[in-house]
Amino acid sequence: MKHNSEHRYNEIMIIDSHNHIGIDIHGVIQEPRSLLKKMERSGVGKCIIFPFNEIRPGRAFSTANDYIAKVVKSHSDQFIGFARTDPTHTSAADEVYRAIKKLGLKGLKLHPRSQEFHPSDDVVIPVLEMCVSLNVPILFHSGYAYRTLPPAIGEIADRFPELRVIMGHMGCSDVGTPSGIDDAIRIAARAENLYLETSRMMIPSYIAKAVRSVGEDKVIFGSDTPYGKQDDEIEIILKSGLDSFSLKRVFHENIMSLLNLK
Fold this sequence. Notes:
The protein is α/β, with parallel strands linked by helices. It has 10 helices and 10 strands. Helix 7 packs parallel to helix 8 (204-214). It is globular and about 45 Å long.
């Protein structure tokens, strides 16, 4: 565990809120033991895990969600499980209910680009309503590639004020253009139930800007393993100039509060 500012966080618990377990349609793999090794090396205490855009997801991601629940059961001290689903599937809302109530997963991940939907599409509404009824948060991929997502995610937060919405990658596109990040910060600043997750954003000054603009209680650390590297993502947070109080909020307190964890 080697960071330029290690002394500033070596007593701070780190929860990584964005990690994939399984195998994606392009053959990218991350097994639980691989992630556990990364966590030990980087000083990460817990990870939120959810499926990739799986090669064999099952009905509305049922098979993939079963696997996540199995992994969490085997590593309950290290992993917190989120479900995934395809809102265009007729069983999507039912699968969310099953994943939360029967499998014990704690939230939902949606990826508009991978499942070829837009957050404003009508097919998404039953899934959102189910998350509200189950009182679980939803993490949206929010990169700007192909279609502009942060404004639509902001509209969801406005339409469902009881829903805790996490904007994964805080609006950063695949090529890291600041315009999407600026939009994400602006939108999250006005929506009390909208949180920004930091993975793959990679610009320290924007971490500081996000904390100043939306509040230190609404920015959440994530790395997006295996696509991102925990060491690199931690270093971006440390280079942002946040004080120790804000580092604790970003690294673990905010996600613990959002998930009602002790």
